[in-house]
């Protein structure tokens, strides 16, 4: 009965980042597994890119912290939220350009850019070459994805 009630309120099955821990008294507790904050941030940004631009408030909410706390953590590590979003978008772009036949416009839309020229400028700023030139040099021919294909980035 407890499992059924837990499933109804979304607590069962438990999230994968939880693990059982025995206390000195022998009681079982559930603790969160430690995870790399930067990896969590990258995964959340990549996930939010599927539904549009990953704003700071939406990302912070998914990480269960305030937007200002997220900004402070990034500042302490010498980064900014915009830098993090740009890096995730760039990593996904590299993968899509080298492993798919999607056109540049489709990739731009998938990554939340307003238009292909915005994507091309951002890509060139980070790689010092255009998306077309990068694709020509790194393309793994023969893979074709549809627009509904899920894209994920490894943290």
Give me the count of strands.
Answer: 2
For the biggest sheet, the summary is: 2 strands, antiparallel
Q: How does the helix and strand content classify structurally?
A: mainly alpha
Shape: elongated
Number of domains: 2
Element pattern in H and E = HEEHHHHHHH
Strand order, main sheet: write it out. Answer: 1-2
State the end-to-end distance: 37 Å
Cα radius of gyration in angstroms: 20 Å
Number of helices, counting only DSSP H or I runs of 4 residues or more: 8
What is the percent of helical residues? 40-55%
CATH superfamily of the largest domain: Homeodomain-like
Return the CATH class of the largest domain. Mainly Alpha
Mean pLDDT metric: 78
The residue ranges in which pLDDT falls below 50 over 5 or more consecutive positions are 1-19, 30-34, 142-150
Give your account of this protein's structure.
This protein has 155 residues and is mostly helical. It folds into two domains: 2-32, no CATH class; 37-138, Arc Repressor Mutant, subunit A. The protein has eight helices and two strands; from the N terminus they run αββααααααα. The chain has helices at 2-8, 37-49, 56-63, 67-76, 81-99, 104-110, 116-127, 131-138, and strands at residues 18-22, 28-32. The longest helix has 19 residues, at 81-99. The two termini are 37 Å apart.
């Amino acid at each position: 009965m407890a499992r059924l009630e837990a499933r109804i309120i979304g607590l069962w099955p438990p999230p994968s980042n939880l693990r059982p821990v025995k206390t000195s008294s022998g009681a079982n507790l559930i603790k969160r597994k430690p995870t790399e904050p930067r990896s969590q941030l990258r995964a959340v940004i990549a996930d939010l890119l599927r539904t549009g631009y990953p704003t700071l408030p939406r990302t912070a909410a998914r990480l269960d912290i305030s937007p200002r706390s997220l900004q402070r953590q990034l500042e302490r590590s010498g980064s900014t939220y915009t830098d993090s979003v740009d890096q995730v978008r760039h990593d996904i772009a590299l993968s899509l350009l080298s492993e798919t036949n999607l056109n540049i416009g489709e990739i731009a839309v998938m990554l939340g850019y307003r238009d292909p020229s915005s994507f091309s400028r951002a890509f060139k700023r980070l790689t010092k070459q255009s998306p077309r030139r990068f694709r020509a040099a790194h393309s793994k021919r023969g893979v074709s994805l549809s627009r509904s294909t899920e894209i994920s980035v490894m943290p």
